[in-house]
Amino acid sequence: NAGVMQNPRHLVRRRGQEARLRCSPMKGHSHVYWYRQLPEEGLKFMVYLQKENIIDESGMPKERFSAEFPKEGPSILRIQQVVRGDSAAYFCASSPPRKTQYFGPGTRLLVL
Amino acid sequence: AQTVTQSQPEMSVQEAETVTLSCTYDTSESDYYLFWYKQPPSRQMILVIRQEAYKQQNATENRFSVNFQKAAKSFSLKISDSQLGDAAMYFCAHYSLGGAQKLVFGQGTRLTINP
């Protein structure tokens, strides 16, 4: 049973470019969560999605960030016009409803 | 809003000894889970142990056990017979079943194992 898959594992972008992060949940999991980890800090919640629905985006910055979980395919976290402060590790987690969340390996985003 | 506090930024222990990591939390929810996750240098988040708030019995997973004090809102992790592979950042987390279904993490404790 494959775990949560994230790609790419490392992503380098220049300021002003777009970053697109992908997450494939574990088989049978219908809930996806995105978290961000700044250097030397804990993980902070960004957004919670189910298929074709955003359930809670209270942790998402108001501008430049968006997320989707389409009916087919992986969940996507999109960051437009990246800035240096976006450099962080972005983790995806998945779970069945109201159950333990399992994490992917993360995507390390570096903005030059 | 839920908050989770880990008051020990760093801890160290001799190999084969026992160490306890502290965690306190604040919540108005009655139905929730508490977790400890481990983050080794690879940065992968690994589930260590889970405690359901409605259970009075403390959770145990091999060398890992918790001391869950619901009234005091305390949730400490005990690691027995520490091994070199236990060296990592440890994060305590709260998950509300009734409200926002998201994990709220503490700041983490860096555990060093001395050979």
Q: What is the first-to-last residue Cα distance of chain B?
A: 41 Å
Bin the helical content of chain B. under 10%
- List how many beta strands of chain A DSSP finds: 11
Question: Nearest-angstrom radius of gyration of chain B?
Answer: 14 Å
Q: What's the short version?
A:
The complex is a heterodimer of chains A (112) and B (115). Chain A has no helices and 11 strands.
List keywords for this structure.
heterodimer, A: 112 residues, mainly beta, 7-stranded mixed sheet, 4-stranded antiparallel sheet, 11 strands, 50% strand, globular, B: 115 residues, 6-stranded mixed sheet, 12 strands
Structure report:
The complex is a heterodimer of chains A (112) and B (115). Chain A has 112 residues and is mostly beta strands. Chain A is 0% helix and 50% strand. In chain A, the strands form two sheets. In chain A, strands 2, 4, 5, 6, 9, 10 and 11 form a seven-stranded mixed beta sheet that branches. Chain A is globular and about 40 Å long. The mean pLDDT of chain A is 94. Chain B is mainly β. In chain B, a hairpin with a 6-residue loop joins β5 and β6. In chain B, 0% of the residues lie in helices and 53% in strands. The radius of gyration of chain B is 14 Å and the shape is globular. In chain B, the strands form three sheets. In chain B, strands 2, 5, 6, 10, 11 and 12 form a six-stranded mixed beta sheet that branches. Chain B has a four-stranded antiparallel beta sheet with strand order 3-9-8-7, with no helix packed on it. Chain B has strands spanning 3-5, 10-14, 19-21, 24-26, 32-39, 46-52, 60-61, 64-69, 74-79, 88-96, 103-105, 109-114. The model of chain B has no long low-confidence stretch (mean pLDDT 94). Chain A binds chain B through residues 31, 33, 35, 41-45, 48, 55-56, 58-59, 89, 91, 93, 98, 100-103, 105-106, 108, and chain B through 33, 35, 37, 42-47, 50, 91, 95, 97, 100-108.
